[in-house]
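Below is a filled-in request sheet from our internal design queue. Each sheet records the structural input a requester submitted and the sequence that came back. We keep these sheets so that new team members can see what a complete request looks like end to end.

REQUESTER: design group, bay 2
PRIORITY: normal
MODE: inverse folding
CHAIN LENGTH: 113
BACKBONE (tokenized):
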């Protein structure tokens, strides 16, 4: 599992490793939301286009790769339009594995305030 900002600068090396015959072609890359506004509100260090650029690169350069992702629904600032942007992203890529969670403000975090 990795986050988009951590893998973006190493995507070529990751693709080389994933193309090795002894490596299983699977990555878990959580996007969390398809809306840049909500990603910013979540304090994520990437945009939807960063995520899409990474996924597109991996799909083009690692034949047969399986990419899993995570979605958080119901973030306090998420609007209907933000939710629809997430649905569009899921529809675009049709990820075979999607973990969906309802937003929950963990105690001691900024979101809990």
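RETURNED SEQUENCE:
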């Amino acid at each position: 599992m990795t986050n988009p900002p951590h893998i973006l600068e190493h995507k070529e090396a990751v693709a080389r490793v994933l193309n090795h015959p002894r490596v299983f072609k699977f990555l878990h890359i959580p996007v969390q939301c398809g809306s840049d506004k909500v990603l910013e509100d979540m304090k994520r260090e990437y945009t939807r286009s960063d995520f899409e650029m990474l996924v597109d690169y991996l799909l083009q350069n690692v034949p047969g790769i399986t990419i899993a992702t995570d979605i958080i629904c119901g973030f306090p600032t998420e609007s209907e339009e933000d939710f629809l942007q997430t649905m569009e992203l899921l529809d675009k890529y049709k990820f075979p594995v999607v973990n969906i969670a309802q937003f929950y403000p963990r105690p001691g975090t900024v979101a809990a305030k």
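SHEET NOTES:
- The helical segments are 4-7, 11-18, 36-41, 48-61, 80-93.
- The longest helix spans residues 48-61.
FILED BY: M.R.
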